[in-house]
Amino acid sequence: MSAQPFPAPHSHVFLGSDHNRNERRTWLVIALTATMMIVEITAGSIYGSMALVADGWHMSTHAGAMLIAALSYMYARKNAHNPRFSFGTGKLGDLAGFASAIILALIALLIGYESLLRFQSPVQINFQQAIIVAVIGLAVNLVCAWLLRDDHSHHGHSHGHDHHSHDNQAEKAGSQDMNLRAAYFHVLADALTSVLAIAALLFGSLYGWLWLDPAMGIVGGLVIARWSWGLIRQAGGTLLDYIPEGEDLPEEIREAIEVGGDKIADLHIWRLGPGHFGAIVTLEASIAQAPEVYHAKLAHIHDLSHLTIEVNSRRMKSKSG
Protein backbone atom coordinates (compact mmCIF):
# COMPACT_ATOMS: atom_id res chain seq x y z
CA MET A 1 0.00 0.00 0.00
CA SER A 2 1.27 3.48 -0.83
CA ALA A 3 2.48 5.57 2.11
CA GLN A 4 1.02 8.68 0.45
CA PRO A 5 -2.49 7.65 -0.70
CA PHE A 6 -3.72 11.24 -0.93
CA PRO A 7 -0.74 13.36 -1.96
CA ALA A 8 -1.27 17.12 -1.50
CA PRO A 9 0.44 19.81 -3.59
CA HIS A 10 0.78 22.08 -0.55
CA SER A 11 0.99 21.85 3.23
CA HIS A 12 -2.10 21.12 5.32
CA VAL A 13 -0.51 21.83 8.69
CA PHE A 14 -2.95 24.09 10.52
CA LEU A 15 -1.76 23.82 14.11
CA GLY A 16 -1.79 26.90 16.33
CA SER A 17 1.33 29.05 16.41
CA ASP A 18 1.91 28.11 20.09
CA HIS A 19 1.09 24.42 19.71
CA ASN A 20 4.46 23.09 20.93
CA ARG A 21 4.64 25.58 23.80
CA ASN A 22 1.11 24.72 24.94
CA GLU A 23 1.86 20.99 24.74
CA ARG A 24 4.95 21.34 26.95
CA ARG A 25 3.11 23.46 29.51
CA THR A 26 0.17 21.05 29.65
CA TRP A 27 2.49 18.12 30.42
CA LEU A 28 4.19 20.23 33.12
CA VAL A 29 0.83 21.06 34.70
CA ILE A 30 -0.11 17.36 34.67
CA ALA A 31 3.18 16.55 36.42
CA LEU A 32 2.54 19.19 39.11
CA THR A 33 -1.06 18.11 39.62
CA ALA A 34 -0.21 14.39 39.74
CA THR A 35 2.62 15.02 42.21
CA MET A 36 0.34 17.04 44.48
CA MET A 37 -2.34 14.36 44.16
CA ILE A 38 0.06 11.58 45.24
CA VAL A 39 1.42 13.64 48.14
CA GLU A 40 -2.08 14.46 49.43
CA ILE A 41 -3.41 10.90 49.16
CA THR A 42 -0.27 9.43 50.77
CA ALA A 43 -0.14 12.00 53.59
CA GLY A 44 -3.88 11.68 54.18
CA SER A 45 -3.63 7.89 54.41
CA ILE A 46 -0.65 8.03 56.80
CA TYR A 47 -2.08 10.72 59.06
CA GLY A 48 -5.73 9.71 58.80
CA SER A 49 -6.87 12.91 57.11
CA MET A 50 -9.95 12.42 54.95
CA ALA A 51 -9.70 16.05 53.83
CA LEU A 52 -6.29 15.39 52.27
CA VAL A 53 -7.42 12.13 50.68
CA ALA A 54 -10.60 13.68 49.26
CA ASP A 55 -8.74 16.66 47.81
CA GLY A 56 -6.15 14.34 46.30
CA TRP A 57 -8.77 12.30 44.46
CA HIS A 58 -10.51 15.51 43.43
CA MET A 59 -7.28 16.70 41.79
CA SER A 60 -7.03 13.39 39.94
CA THR A 61 -10.19 14.19 37.96
CA HIS A 62 -8.67 17.41 36.65
CA ALA A 63 -5.35 15.69 35.94
CA GLY A 64 -7.25 13.12 33.88
CA ALA A 65 -9.01 15.84 31.92
CA MET A 66 -5.73 17.61 31.23
CA LEU A 67 -4.25 14.31 30.06
CA ILE A 68 -6.82 14.42 27.25
CA ALA A 69 -5.47 17.84 26.28
CA ALA A 70 -1.84 16.71 26.37
CA LEU A 71 -2.45 13.55 24.34
CA SER A 72 -4.44 15.48 21.73
CA TYR A 73 -1.56 17.95 21.34
CA MET A 74 0.85 15.06 20.85
CA TYR A 75 -1.37 13.20 18.39
CA ALA A 76 -2.09 16.34 16.36
CA ARG A 77 1.63 17.16 16.16
CA LYS A 78 2.66 13.64 15.16
CA ASN A 79 -0.04 13.42 12.48
CA ALA A 80 0.18 16.99 11.20
CA HIS A 81 1.61 15.76 7.88
CA ASN A 82 -0.60 12.66 7.60
CA PRO A 83 -2.33 13.01 4.20
CA ARG A 84 -5.34 11.00 5.39
CA PHE A 85 -6.38 14.06 7.41
CA SER A 86 -7.71 16.05 4.45
CA PHE A 87 -7.52 19.40 6.26
CA GLY A 88 -4.84 18.57 8.80
CA THR A 89 -5.18 17.96 12.53
CA GLY A 90 -5.77 21.55 13.66
CA LYS A 91 -9.32 20.85 14.86
CA LEU A 92 -8.26 17.98 17.11
CA GLY A 93 -7.79 20.53 19.88
CA ASP A 94 -11.42 21.59 19.50
CA LEU A 95 -12.51 17.96 19.83
CA ALA A 96 -10.38 17.55 22.97
CA GLY A 97 -11.72 20.84 24.33
CA PHE A 98 -15.29 19.66 23.78
CA ALA A 99 -14.56 16.39 25.64
CA SER A 100 -12.90 18.28 28.50
CA ALA A 101 -15.89 20.63 28.72
CA ILE A 102 -18.19 17.61 29.16
CA ILE A 103 -15.96 16.34 31.98
CA LEU A 104 -16.01 19.81 33.56
CA ALA A 105 -19.83 19.76 33.46
CA LEU A 106 -19.86 16.35 35.17
CA ILE A 107 -17.51 17.66 37.87
CA ALA A 108 -19.91 20.59 38.45
CA LEU A 109 -22.81 18.16 38.83
CA LEU A 110 -20.78 16.02 41.25
CA ILE A 111 -19.85 19.03 43.37
CA GLY A 112 -23.51 20.12 43.48
CA TYR A 113 -24.70 16.62 44.38
CA GLU A 114 -22.14 16.23 47.19
CA SER A 115 -23.05 19.67 48.52
CA LEU A 116 -26.75 18.77 48.68
CA LEU A 117 -25.87 15.59 50.59
CA ARG A 118 -23.87 17.71 53.05
CA PHE A 119 -26.97 19.85 53.68
CA GLN A 120 -28.95 16.73 54.57
CA SER A 121 -26.18 15.09 56.58
CA PRO A 122 -23.69 17.64 57.94
CA VAL A 123 -20.28 16.27 58.90
CA GLN A 124 -17.86 17.53 61.51
CA ILE A 125 -14.99 19.47 59.93
CA ASN A 126 -11.42 19.80 61.15
CA PHE A 127 -11.22 23.46 60.13
CA GLN A 128 -7.50 24.00 60.66
CA GLN A 129 -6.48 20.95 58.68
CA ALA A 130 -9.00 21.61 55.90
CA ILE A 131 -7.86 25.24 55.52
CA ILE A 132 -4.22 24.14 55.16
CA VAL A 133 -5.20 21.66 52.44
CA ALA A 134 -7.29 24.26 50.59
CA VAL A 135 -4.48 26.85 50.71
CA ILE A 136 -1.92 24.36 49.37
CA GLY A 137 -4.33 23.31 46.63
CA LEU A 138 -4.97 26.95 45.71
CA ALA A 139 -1.23 27.67 45.47
CA VAL A 140 -0.68 24.71 43.13
CA ASN A 141 -3.64 25.72 40.97
CA LEU A 142 -2.46 29.32 40.69
CA VAL A 143 0.93 28.09 39.44
CA CYS A 144 -0.81 25.81 36.93
CA ALA A 145 -3.10 28.64 35.79
CA TRP A 146 -0.06 30.84 35.21
CA LEU A 147 1.53 28.10 33.09
CA LEU A 148 -1.64 27.61 31.02
CA ARG A 149 -2.41 31.27 30.44
CA ASP A 150 -2.79 32.19 26.78
CA ASP A 151 -0.61 35.30 26.69
CA HIS A 152 0.32 35.13 23.01
CA SER A 153 -0.76 38.29 21.22
CA HIS A 154 -2.61 37.24 18.08
CA HIS A 155 -3.26 39.54 15.19
CA GLY A 156 -5.59 37.27 13.27
CA HIS A 157 -6.77 39.18 10.22
CA SER A 158 -4.43 41.63 8.56
CA HIS A 159 -6.47 44.67 7.57
CA GLY A 160 -5.59 47.43 5.20
CA HIS A 161 -8.37 49.61 6.56
CA ASP A 162 -10.54 50.02 9.64
CA HIS A 163 -13.39 47.66 10.42
CA HIS A 164 -16.28 47.50 12.85
CA SER A 165 -15.97 47.01 16.60
CA HIS A 166 -16.25 43.21 16.45
CA ASP A 167 -12.74 42.85 15.00
CA ASN A 168 -10.90 42.24 18.27
CA GLN A 169 -13.52 39.75 19.46
CA ALA A 170 -13.46 37.90 16.13
CA GLU A 171 -9.68 37.76 16.01
CA LYS A 172 -9.56 36.43 19.55
CA ALA A 173 -12.17 33.75 18.84
CA GLY A 174 -10.50 32.68 15.61
CA SER A 175 -7.07 32.39 17.23
CA GLN A 176 -8.11 30.70 20.49
CA ASP A 177 -6.71 27.28 21.27
CA MET A 178 -9.79 25.52 22.65
CA ASN A 179 -7.69 22.65 23.99
CA LEU A 180 -5.60 25.02 26.11
CA ARG A 181 -8.70 27.00 27.09
CA ALA A 182 -10.42 23.85 28.40
CA ALA A 183 -7.34 22.82 30.41
CA TYR A 184 -7.12 26.36 31.80
CA PHE A 185 -10.74 26.25 32.93
CA HIS A 186 -10.16 22.93 34.69
CA VAL A 187 -7.38 24.58 36.70
CA LEU A 188 -9.55 27.64 37.35
CA ALA A 189 -12.40 25.41 38.52
CA ASP A 190 -10.10 23.76 41.03
CA ALA A 191 -8.81 27.18 42.16
CA LEU A 192 -12.36 28.48 42.53
CA THR A 193 -13.39 25.56 44.72
CA SER A 194 -10.29 26.18 46.87
CA VAL A 195 -11.11 29.89 47.27
CA LEU A 196 -14.74 29.20 48.15
CA ALA A 197 -13.70 26.43 50.52
CA ILE A 198 -11.23 28.71 52.31
CA ALA A 199 -13.92 31.38 52.74
CA ALA A 200 -16.47 28.85 54.00
CA LEU A 201 -13.96 27.23 56.39
CA LEU A 202 -12.82 30.56 57.83
CA PHE A 203 -16.37 31.70 58.58
CA GLY A 204 -17.27 28.20 59.74
CA SER A 205 -14.40 28.14 62.21
CA LEU A 206 -15.27 31.62 63.51
CA TYR A 207 -19.07 31.33 63.73
CA GLY A 208 -19.76 27.59 63.50
CA TRP A 209 -21.63 27.93 60.19
CA LEU A 210 -21.34 24.36 58.93
CA TRP A 211 -24.00 25.08 56.29
CA LEU A 212 -21.70 27.57 54.56
CA ASP A 213 -19.38 24.82 53.26
CA PRO A 214 -22.04 23.03 51.15
CA ALA A 215 -23.56 26.40 50.18
CA MET A 216 -20.23 27.50 48.72
CA GLY A 217 -20.02 24.12 47.00
CA ILE A 218 -23.31 24.78 45.20
CA VAL A 219 -22.16 28.27 44.19
CA GLY A 220 -18.91 26.83 42.83
CA GLY A 221 -20.78 24.09 40.98
CA LEU A 222 -23.03 26.65 39.29
CA VAL A 223 -20.08 28.81 38.20
CA ILE A 224 -18.19 25.79 36.85
CA ALA A 225 -21.31 24.60 35.02
CA ARG A 226 -21.58 28.01 33.34
CA TRP A 227 -17.93 27.83 32.25
CA SER A 228 -18.42 24.32 30.87
CA TRP A 229 -21.53 25.36 28.92
CA GLY A 230 -19.59 28.21 27.29
CA LEU A 231 -16.80 25.80 26.32
CA ILE A 232 -19.28 23.25 24.96
CA ARG A 233 -20.96 25.89 22.79
CA GLN A 234 -17.71 27.33 21.47
CA ALA A 235 -15.90 24.05 20.81
CA GLY A 236 -19.05 22.36 19.52
CA GLY A 237 -19.71 25.27 17.17
CA THR A 238 -16.21 24.97 15.70
CA LEU A 239 -16.63 21.22 15.20
CA LEU A 240 -19.86 21.93 13.29
CA ASP A 241 -18.16 24.66 11.20
CA TYR A 242 -20.25 27.40 12.79
CA ILE A 243 -18.97 30.92 12.14
CA PRO A 244 -19.53 32.95 15.33
CA GLU A 245 -21.19 36.35 15.32
CA GLY A 246 -18.59 39.06 15.02
CA GLU A 247 -16.32 37.03 12.75
CA ASP A 248 -15.74 39.42 9.86
CA LEU A 249 -13.96 37.03 7.49
CA PRO A 250 -17.01 36.66 5.15
CA GLU A 251 -17.26 40.44 4.80
CA GLU A 252 -13.54 40.75 4.17
CA ILE A 253 -13.68 38.18 1.38
CA ARG A 254 -16.67 39.89 -0.23
CA GLU A 255 -15.04 43.32 -0.03
CA ALA A 256 -11.90 42.00 -1.73
CA ILE A 257 -13.61 39.91 -4.42
CA GLU A 258 -16.90 41.64 -5.29
CA VAL A 259 -15.56 44.45 -7.48
CA GLY A 260 -16.24 45.37 -11.11
CA GLY A 261 -19.58 43.56 -11.23
CA ASP A 262 -18.25 40.26 -9.83
CA LYS A 263 -20.55 38.59 -7.30
CA ILE A 264 -20.02 35.69 -4.91
CA ALA A 265 -22.69 33.08 -5.62
CA ASP A 266 -21.66 30.66 -2.87
CA LEU A 267 -19.31 31.00 0.10
CA HIS A 268 -18.26 28.40 2.69
CA ILE A 269 -15.90 29.26 5.56
CA TRP A 270 -14.72 27.02 8.38
CA ARG A 271 -11.97 26.97 10.99
CA LEU A 272 -9.08 24.58 10.32
CA GLY A 273 -7.26 25.24 13.58
CA PRO A 274 -6.23 28.13 15.85
CA GLY A 275 -5.61 31.11 13.59
CA HIS A 276 -6.36 29.15 10.40
CA PHE A 277 -9.50 29.27 8.23
CA GLY A 278 -10.48 27.56 5.02
CA ALA A 279 -12.84 28.95 2.37
CA ILE A 280 -14.58 27.76 -0.79
CA VAL A 281 -15.69 30.62 -3.04
CA THR A 282 -17.93 30.32 -6.09
CA LEU A 283 -17.70 33.53 -8.09
CA GLU A 284 -19.97 34.78 -10.87
CA ALA A 285 -17.67 37.06 -12.88
CA SER A 286 -18.64 39.46 -15.64
CA ILE A 287 -15.20 38.97 -17.20
CA ALA A 288 -13.48 35.96 -15.71
CA GLN A 289 -9.83 36.08 -14.83
CA ALA A 290 -7.45 33.32 -13.83
CA PRO A 291 -8.05 32.03 -10.29
CA GLU A 292 -4.56 33.21 -9.31
CA VAL A 293 -5.79 36.79 -9.65
CA TYR A 294 -8.47 36.21 -7.03
CA HIS A 295 -6.00 34.39 -4.77
CA ALA A 296 -3.82 37.51 -4.91
CA LYS A 297 -6.77 39.71 -3.93
CA LEU A 298 -7.24 37.67 -0.75
CA ALA A 299 -3.55 37.25 0.09
CA HIS A 300 -3.70 40.02 2.74
CA ILE A 301 -6.05 37.93 4.92
CA HIS A 302 -3.45 35.96 6.86
CA ASP A 303 -5.97 33.72 8.65
CA LEU A 304 -7.21 32.42 5.30
CA SER A 305 -4.88 29.43 5.10
CA HIS A 306 -6.68 27.23 2.56
CA LEU A 307 -8.61 28.68 -0.36
CA THR A 308 -10.55 27.09 -3.22
CA ILE A 309 -12.02 29.37 -5.90
CA GLU A 310 -14.44 28.49 -8.68
CA VAL A 311 -14.96 31.14 -11.35
CA ASN A 312 -18.04 30.99 -13.57
CA SER A 313 -18.72 33.22 -16.57
CA ARG A 314 -19.83 33.03 -20.19
CA ARG A 315 -16.22 33.05 -21.37
CA MET A 316 -14.49 30.84 -18.84
CA LYS A 317 -15.06 28.21 -16.17
CA SER A 318 -12.14 27.09 -14.04
CA LYS A 319 -11.23 25.80 -10.60
CA SER A 320 -8.24 26.30 -8.37
CA GLY A 321 -7.53 24.63 -5.01
Would you kindly provide a written description of the structure presented here, covering whatever features stand out?
There is one protein chain. It is built from nine helices and four strands. It starts with 18 loop residues before the first helix and ends with a strand. A hairpin with a 2-residue loop joins strand 1 and strand 2. The chain folds into two domains: 221 residues, Cation efflux protein transmembrane domain (Alpha-lytic protease prodomain-like, Up-down Bundle), CATH 1.20.1510; 72 residues, Alpha-Beta Plaits, CATH 3.30.70.1350. A four-stranded mixed beta sheet has the order 1-2-3-4. Helix 1 packs antiparallel against helix 4, helix 2 runs antiparallel to helix 3 and helix 3 packs antiparallel against helix 7. By secondary structure, it is of the alpha+beta class. The N terminus and C terminus are likely disordered.
Shape: elongated
Give the domain tally. 2
| Helical residues, percent | 55-70%
Q: Write the CATH fold name of the largest domain.
A: Alpha-lytic protease prodomain-like
CATH-scheme architecture of the largest domain: Up-down Bundle
The total of helices stands at 9
Radius of gyration: 25 Å
For this structure, what is the CATH homologous superfamily of the largest domain?
Cation efflux protein transmembrane domain
Order of helices and strands: HHHHHHHHEEHEE
The CATH class of the largest domain is identified as: Mainly Alpha
Beta fraction of the residues? Answer: 5-15%
Structural class: alpha+beta
- Average pLDDT metric: 78
